[in-house]
Amino acid sequence: MSNISYMLYACPMRRVTVVGSGVIGLSVAHELARAGDAVTVVADADIAHTVSTVAAAVWFPYLSASPATGDWLTRSLARYRAISLDESAGVDLRAGTVVERTPHPDRSWTPVVAGATEATVLPEGALSGVRATVPVVTSGVYGEWLTARCRDLGVRFEVRGVASVDECAGNADLVVVAAGLRSGQLLGDDSSVVPVRGQVVRLENPGLTDWWIDDDNPGGLTYVVPRRDDIVCGGVSEVGATSLELDDATERAILERTTALVPQLAGLRIVSRGVGLRPSRPTVRLERVPGHAVPVIACYGHGGSGVTLSWGCAEAVVELAQAG
Ligand SMILES: Cc1cc2nc3c(=O)[nH]c(=O)nc-3n(C[C@H](O)[C@H](O)[C@H](O)COP(=O)(O)OP(=O)(O)OC[C@H]3O[C@@H](n4cnc5c(N)ncnc54)[C@H](O)[C@@H]3O)c2cc1C
Fold first, then answer.
1. Which residue minimizes the CA distance to atom 7 of ligand 1?
2. Which ligand 1 atom is nearest residue 299's CA?
3. pLDDT tens-digit profile of 125-169?
């Protein structure tokens, strides 16, 4: 036996099944494949048909508590900065403003972002604000790019539903559950994942680049995210709501609030609309899960920050996988 074939025999590639093809599943698959694993993504919807493509998608933490969030934010930001150099990825670094309307706003995210400063231009009623340059992701373009990068690394894709992680045991040495809202059901031990419904209306973009996030707007969650091909206007944050139907009254209210925030939006043509259910959990779950027929790592519950945290969490999954 030659040395090379002996090494291959001695160190077979670990077979990993990643359940989920949203931004979390694909980022995890990418990182595991990059680390040398033989990765198969199993999902009943590709990224274009997940909540990951409904996302606005601006790099900003929202509804995603965890003691490790700071680390994941830092790592993800660094990766997105590098990715933004590839024009085809659909990631742009853009300046914008986080509006603050409470006396003690949460600025825990600002140390991560070099150059974040006090905002000087603020809407009526705001007490303060932060101006920062962060990644803005044109999610449709990015989803295709990320899928292609996974394929380049040898990731295989299977389109099918999975009823429980244990059914993956025969074909995998490790299963990563990155199934968003349905992850708890798959594992059978977690009923704490709840949908937080969001709705957006997307306008034509005549060339705007500045984004706005106004979480505490008295009228409700408000944001304006200009991307390459549209301007995403949102939103709502309806805990426990499961309807994927568009609501006209919600859309009217979104347009009213966002136009008050950014008057240049007045009269712009609507190009599309979207509804999605954020997979929310008291804390993001990223850990080994014992008690199954195959080793399992959970990576889900990213709430309104799945795009924001994706690379940091994917890197953490690889470290966890290698530690075990
Ligand atoms: C309106 C709106 C705006 C948002 N804006 C932002 C933003 O600006 N920035 C940001 O970071 N985040 C944003 N988010 C949140 C973000 O979209 C989510 O956190 C993220 O998409 C979650 O990704 P995921 O991969 O965990 O889940 P998903 O995208 O839901 O993917 C889940 C995957 O698992 C598969 N799956 C599930 N169960 C099974 C099963 N049993 N068998 C087989 N496959 C299965 C699905 O087919 C799918 O492929 C927003 C969300 C909404 C709704």
1. 57
2. 26
3. 999 999 999 999 999 999 999 999 999 999 999 999 999 999 999
pTM for the model stands at 0.96
Residue given tokens 């024009």 in the structure block:
87
3-class secondary structure, 285? strand
Nearest CA to ligand 1 atom 47: 45
Find, among 111, 89, 107, 91, the residue nearest to 99 by Cα: 107
CA distance 249 to 244: 15
Give the C-alpha separation, 106 to 258, whole Å: 22
What share of the chain in percent tops pLDDT 70?
A: 96
Answer whether 199's CB lies under 8 Å from 246's CB: yes
Distance separating alpha carbons of residues 303 and 62, to the nearest angstrom: 7
Q: How far apart (Å, rounded) are the C-alpha atoms in residues 294 and 174? A: 6
Distinct helix (H) and strand (E) counts, the chain: 8, 15
The helix/strand/coil state of 85 is: coil
Pocket residues: Cβ below 6 A from ligand 1: 19-25, 42-45, 50-52, 54-58, 161-162, 178-182, 186, 198, 200, 234-235, 276, 278-279, 300, 302-308
Cβ atoms of residues 176 and 32 within 8 Å = yes
Three-state DSSP at 110 gives: helix
15-19 β-sheet, strand order: 156-159, 38-43, 15-19, 174-177, 296-300, 285-288
Q: In angstroms, rounded to a whole number, what is the distance separating the alpha carbons of residues 209 and 35?
A: 36
Q: What is the 3-state secondary structure (H, E, C) of 191-233?
A: CCCEEEEEEEEEECCCCCCCEEEECCCCCCCEEEEECCCCEEE
Burial class of residue 239 in the structure, from the number of CB atoms within 10 Å of its CB (0-12 exposed, 13-18 middle, 19+ buried): exposed
Q: Which CATH superfamily is domain 3-323 in?
A: NAD(P)-binding Rossmann-like Domain (3.40.50.720)
